[in-house]
Specification:
By secondary structure, the protein is α+β, with helices and mostly antiparallel strands. It has 2 domains: about 210 residues, Alpha-beta prism (UDP-n-acetylglucosamine1-carboxyvinyl-transferase, Chain), CATH 3.65.10; about 210 residues, Enolpyruvate transferase domain (UDP-n-acetylglucosamine1-carboxyvinyl-transferase, Chain), CATH 3.65.10.10. About 30% of the residues lie in helices and about 25% in strands. It is built from 14 helices and 23 strands. The strands form 6 sheets. It has a 4-stranded mixed sheet with strand order 21-22-1-23. The protein has a 4-stranded mixed sheet with strand order 2-14-16-15, with helices on one face. α1 packs parallel to α7 and α8 packs parallel to α10. The longest helix is centred in the middle third of the chain and has 14 residues. It is globular, with a radius of gyration of 22 Å.
């Protein structure tokens, strides 16, 4: 059953909203439960499609999972068998790549298909493969990827990642958590989901410290303990609600926001003329803001502006005065959403797969548009909220992958937004 969002735009958002747990932090922490035979308790799980998929994959592997409360699970992986890996789910779910580090850490051999995921450009797993090879893992590539670690966990390793990669950093951390020798990871990512995973691995018994710029040292233990952990709240979701409020000229207080991971994002919004008050480290009040000017939006690895927030800022740029340069060097498909904005009346020129110029301000007109990926879907919702008339957004499954019942939360802020069955 395919669903769609139908939005009547032009209503400023007003009220309060609470941020949910971070999906990108949930994946590696769920994967960490594979490293121990003891029971683990994970709280503050976002109730979204991708988290449900990860849980289903773990159950397919043999994990015993029970829901303690609405957002809390107990998970025991004592009887997990890598031969039971559900290939059909792996192929359509990018987050499943994080199973590799844990499974290889616990078992000597793993076979898996390549993971799927968002259509935002080329996302090969070469960085992961190269990192595992540096760690002594033998890899054969064919219809399936075959991994054999042999004696890889009885040696010290220095691993230099080919690029700043969140998931590759997490995979090597997971793999190294059961190696009692020292592993040094260079060119490591240090974003919120990596930091949350480190907190979990430390609870399990690993010793981890930052030893340099983008450099992490980990000394693991052969037998790791179970853990109890509440997942960090989602900075990307917080950023989405901040931009939605600014774009609609609204006034919203956003609670449970991990503002420490949004330093440059907030700095640049302030530069653009946005008005907001940081009430405490986890609460921000976004005020009505007029005459915004955005000169440039550039997404970079943490502590830069997240690529996941670039599409939302791109929509905001259509409502500001003058030209805005958008530069996303990370994914060549991340700017696909701009075509949908032009259908709504925006004036945007795409220079190449990574750069575009948005000319503002534009009066967007509601029409039928597509959610090409998760973050583009969030951007299209914001576009619908500010457009005149009716906006229909198709392929909203992409949005459900990362935002929990977003239409209900926006409705509480006054938005005229409904979920409908597409006929």
């Amino acid at each position: 059953m395919e669903e769609k969002f139908v939005i009547q735009g032009g209503i400023p958002l007003k009220g309060e909203v609470e941020i949910r747990g971070a999906k990108n932090a949930a994946f590696p922490i769920l994967a960490a439960s594979l490293l121990t035979k003891e029971t683990c308790v994970i709280d503050n799980l976002p109730l979204i499609e991708d988290v449900f998929k990860m849980i289903k994959i773990l159950e397919g592997l043999g994990a015993k999972i029970s829901w303690v409360s609405k957002r809390k699970i107990e998970i025991n992986c004592s009887n997990v068998k890598p031969s039971k890996i559900p290939s059909d789910l792996i192929k359509c779910f990018r987050g499943s790549i994080l199973l590799l580090g844990s499974l290889l850490g616990r078992f000597s051999r793993v076979e898996t298909p390549a993971p799927g995921g968002c259509v935002i450009g080329s996302r090969p797993i070469d960085t992961h493969l190269d990192a595992f090879r540096q760690a002594g893992v033998k890899i054969e590539e064919g219809k399936l990827y075959s991994f054999k670690r042999n004696g890889a966990l009885e040696k010290s390793h220095e691993i230099v990642l080919r690029e700043v990669s969140v998931t590759a950093t997490e995979n090597i951390l997971l793999f190294s958590a059961v190696n009692s020798k020292k592993t040094i990871i260079k060119i490591a990512d240090e974003d919120y989901q990596v930091q949350d995973l480190i907190r979990v691995l430390e609870k399990m018994g690993a010793e981890i410290k930052h030893t340099g710029i983008r450099e992490i040292e980990i000394i693991g233990k052969k037998k790791l303990k179970g853990f109890k952990h509440s997942i960090v709240n989602d900075p990307i979701e917080a950023g989405t609600f901040i931009v939605a409020t600014l774009a609609t000229g609204g006034h919203v207080t956003i609670k449970n926001a991990e503002l420490e991971y949004l330093d440059l994002f907030l700095k640049r919004l302030n530069d653009f003329g946005a008005k907001f008050k940081v009430l405490d480290p986890k609460t921000i009040e976004v005020l009505p803001s007029k005459n915004l000017r955005i000169d440039k939006i550039q997404s970079l690895p943490y502590p830069g502006i997240h690529s996941d927030l670039q599409p939302e800022l791109g929509v905001l740029a259509t409502q500001t005065r003058g030209p805005t340069m958008i530069h996303d060097p990370l994914f060549e498909g991340r700017l696909m959403y701009l075509n949908e904005l032009n259908k709504m009346g925006a004036d945007i020129i795409q220079c190449d797969p990574h750069r575009a110029i948005v000319y503002g301000s534009s009066k967007l007109q509601g029409t039928e548009i597509l959610s090409s990926d998760l973050r583009a879907g969030a951007a299209m919702i914001i576009a619908g909220l500010i457009a005149k008339g009716t906006t229909t957004i198709n392929n909203i499954y992409q949005v459900d992958r990362g935002y929990e019942r977003i239409e209900e939360r926006l409705q509480k802020l006054g938005a005229d937004m409904k979920r409908r069955i597409k006929r």
